[in-house]
Amino acid sequence: MYDLWIASCIAALAVGVFVWGLIFWCVIRYRKRGNELPVQTRYNLPMEFLYTIAPILVVSVLFYYTAVVQTDVVKESKNPDVTVEVVAFKWNWQFNYRDGQGRDANTVASVLGTSEVIPVLVLPSGRSIRFEEQSRDVIHSFWVPELLFKRDVMPGSIRNTFEVSSIDTEGAFVGRCAELCGSYHAFMNFELRVVSPEKYEQFLAAKKGGSSTQDALKAIGVDEYATTTKPFDTRRNTANFNPSDASAGAGS
């Protein structure tokens, strides 16, 4: 997907340079040199053929590679290594680790965001991961900018799914809601924490054993709280949502 984007930009720049060159050439070559009217050409078949066929070829090539990349991006395997149910609601996230795919699968561990703590979604590197998304209220959007994927999360019976073949870079990545969803949309952040498969299994085992998310993160030797969700504080409280003279839930 990244390569397609870069190639499209290069192609657009090349076409732009060509068109700009023709414009400046015409401005200089055919500038007014007197009052005599230039020769009027009724038609030019080679030129008309060029500006009809060339755009069709450019669009056809871009369409082909876009279709190839899109097919690769949306494809899903039968048995992904990890399945996570993404539940969005005003104005936070819940991540449920599932033991299978579909609505009939069971949740074996869960991470829930609160007004005080931004949720941290822990995933293993080098593993295929399926996301199954649903919303409890309005349309939200699950977005991790640095990893170049974003999917709308729909309310009702719609359950969007998508899969990533692997995440190869370990670290912490900010996640956001990219769909305007109400007063505190800007606070609807989460963090994706990519760790080694061994640490992921340790984290999941700790969660299954009843540990809190922060205790499970501490057990695998990483930061207990989100670190990438700037410009907003990692640990939120009602003061972030309301002015000091307003009661909780009153808004601002």
Helix percentage: 25-40%
**Mean pLDDT, all residues:** 85
The separation of the N and C termini measures 40 Å
Q: Any low-confidence stretches, pLDDT <50, length ≥5?
A: 240-252
Report the order of strands and helices.
HHEEEEEEEEEEHHH
Shape summary: elongated
Structural notes for this entry:
Helices cover 32% and strands 25% of the residues. The protein is elongated, with a radius of gyration of 26 Å. The protein starts with a helix and ends in an 11-residue tail after the last helix. It has helices spanning 2-29, 45-74, 197-208, 213-219, 238-241, and strands spanning 82-89, 92-98, 107-112, 120-124, 129-135, 140-144, 149-153, 160-164, 171-177, 189-195. The chain has a five-stranded mixed β-sheet. It has a five-stranded mixed β-sheet with strand order 4-10-9-6-7. By secondary structure, the chain is α+β, with helices and mostly antiparallel strands. It contains five helices and ten strands, in the order ααββββββββββααα. Mean pLDDT is 85; it is low at 240-252. The protein folds into two domains: 2-74; 82-241, Immunoglobulin-like (Sandwich), CATH 2.60.40.
